[in-house]
Amino acid sequence: MPRGESACRWELPANRSFLLFSFPKEDRLLRRADFLRLSAAARKLHTPSFLILVAPPAGDRGRIGITVSRKVGTAVIRNRIKRLVREYYRHHKGSFVSLDVNVIARRGAEKLDYRLVCLELDRAVERLADIRC
User: Fold this and answer.
1) pTM to 2 decimals?
2) 74: left (phi over 0), alpha (psi -120 to 50) or beta
3) I need a surface site. Which of 3, 61, 86, 90 has the fewest CB within 10 A?
4) Region of residue 73 (left: phi > 0; alpha: psi -120 to 50; beta: else)
């Protein structure tokens, strides 16, 4: 092997279907102004463990934000809840295509496992179809 070359080479597979399950920056609500716009003008969906704010997107594509306050638990618990909601979003992106959504965790969300998060958010997504903005 010539000097300066690595033995390990990373190449993207020809089939890029793995990109369907990615979570790029363009899919995230990042700025405080976006969260404030959602909280002011959004429609609300209530579930036992989440409050979901929904509004038409500010840009050309829908995005998601996840909010978990300190009231819910320690940093480890808050990060776990965010991971579970992100995973749900990655696998159900098609349901959120034309919406900006903020998922706010409530107390009690820390007790949910992935299966229960999916059940709760599935019910909310079904109701989303009825109240499209």
Assistant:
1) 0.80
2) beta
3) 3
4) left
CB 43 within 8 A of CB 53: yes
Q: Distance (Å, rounded) from C-alpha 105 to C-alpha 108?
A: 8
Q: Write a three-state SS string for 12-74.
A: CCCCCHHHHHCCCHHHECCCHHHHHHHHHHCEEEECCCEEEEEECCCCCCCCEEEECCCCCCC
* CA–CA distances in Å: residue 15 to residues 11, 19, 23, 93: 11, 9, 18, 19
Two tokens, residue 116: 């229960």
Straight-line distance from the first to the last Cα atom of the chain, in angstroms, rounded to the nearest whole number: 59
User: In the numeric block, which tokens belong to residue 54?
Assistant: 């929904």
Please give the average per-residue pLDDT across 120-132, as a whole number: 84
